[in-house]
Amino acid sequence: MKVVCLDLPVADLSSAESKLMLQMFSAFAEFERNRIRVRTKEEIERAKVQGKKLGRLEAHKTIIAVQAKKASGLSQSNMAKELQLSIATVKGY
């Protein structure tokens, strides 16, 4: 089977030169992906040191509303309907 890529300077991808070029592209892509991973970890650590809270923000109004409905004795499915929330959200709070 012969693969031809019109975007590369070498037309025949089955030749030794083409295989070398594809391996080099693959190595550079892997290197860049690893660098991105390292930079991401470094930024997360920097944010933690600065005291920033990571993750999703808490929905205080939603928590209060769900707890108020729960205190009134409403079932989870009725709470979800009344508050227009998913049942999973109600169960989470």
General description of the model:
It is a single chain. With about 90 residues, the chain is mainly α. It folds into two domains: about 55 residues; about 35 residues, no CATH class. Helices cover about 65% and strands about 0% of the residues. The chain contains four helices and no strands. It is elongated, with a radius of gyration of 27 Å. The termini are far apart. The mean pLDDT is about 85.
Topology:
Elements: H1 16-49, H2 60-71, H3 76-83, H4 87-92
Radius of gyration: 27 Å
Outline the low-pLDDT stretches: none
Percentage beta strand: under 5%
Kindly give the count of domains: 2
User: What is the helix content?
Assistant: 55-70%
Oligomer: single chain
Q: What does the overall shape look like?
A: elongated
End-to-end separation: 58 Å
Structural class: mainly alpha
Let me know the average pLDDT. 86
Number of helical elements:
4
- Largest sheet composition: none
Please give a quick description of this structure.
With 93 residues, the protein is mainly alpha-helical.
Keywords:
93 residues, mainly alpha, 2 domains, 65% helix
